[in-house]
Write a structure and sequence with these properties.
Order of helices and strands: HEHEEEEHEHEHEH
Strand order of the largest sheet: 4-5-1-6-7-8
Distance between the termini: 48 Å
Low-confidence stretches: 1-7, 9-26, 30-39
Largest sheet: 6 strands, mixed
Radius of gyration: 28 Å
């Protein structure tokens, strides 16, 4: 929000109000009206403002509003599919990242794909958060994509409500481990196909068939660089998790 700067009023001389009058402020000629005001402070402080009862939709007067419910969501997937970009696009705080420069030692080990210009890699995790509304706040944890950091996934998934599995349609082979992990863990997840350059290498139906995911698993297309697109994908994750919780409660 743009800040609003108060105007530079002339300073009133001690014991007088002439310099703080309407004539001095707005360039009025003297004698156009009586000087209204007082040189000293009011004898008593005015009472604090209290909104009328029933005004607004917030919490009752004197009762602090309840903090939003924290919800942990995982953003997972293979190497170089856009997990760090996804977290950074939606986070309302400066995201915590553990990016390190890729070196020649990673040649043949870390393969971001022929189309990628990626020069860094996540060596631990990503973290960001976003407030959905007054009652709900998402805490996003991005997993590392390299196989050698797979041992961290169990710890990062602990306490998570659901997961967004980010997929590159041109490199589906790298996406099987992430899908298998969440199927074995029994954690509700959504497969989000990142549209690199605004297009997909395969149709969504072909991707579902290739990854062998059931019809009960939502499959969506999104752009990891676009905040609103990431928001929509995360809302699908929340809907999926809520559906699972509702079914478990009825069982």
């Amino acid at each position: 929000m743009d800040s609003v700067r108060s105007p530079e009023w002339p300073v009133a001389p001690l014991g007088g109000v002439a310099a703080n009058s309407a004539a001095a402020r707005y360039g009025m000629s003297p004698g156009t009206g009586p000087i209204v005001g007082r040189a000293g402070p009011p004898p008593t402080a005015p009472p604090p403002y209290r909104p009328p009862s029933g005004a607004g939709s917030g919490a009752p007067s004197g009762k602090p509003a309840a903090p939003p419910i924290p919800v942990k969501i995982l953003v997972a997937g293979g190497f170089g599919v856009g997990k760090t970009t996804t977290v950074g696009a939606i986070s309302e705080i400066a995201p915590l990242t553990t990016e390190a420069e890729m070196t020649t030692a990673g040649i043949g080990v870390d393969d971001p794909g022929a189309r990628s210009t990626k020069t860094t890699t996540t060596v631990a995790m990503d973290f960001g958060c976003v407030t959905i509304d007054r009652s709900l706040k998402l805490y996003l944890f991005g997993t590392p994509g390299q196989t050698r950091f797979g041992f961290m996934w169990d710890d990062l998934a602990r306490g998570a409500l659901g997961a967004l599995v980010v997929v590159d349609s041109a490199r589906l082979d790298d996406c099987f481990p992430a899908v298998d992990f969440f199927e074995r863990a029994g954690l509700p997840f959504v497969v989000g196909v990142n549209a690199f350059d605004g297009r997909l290498a395969l149709e969504l139906g072909e991707i579902r068939w290739a990854l062998a995911i059931g019809d009960h698993v939502p499959l969506v297309q999104f752009d990891a660089r676009d905040r609103l697109s990431v928001r929509d994908a995360l809302l699908v994750v929340l809907d999926r998790a809520l559906d699972r919780a509702t079914r478990d409660r009825r069982a």
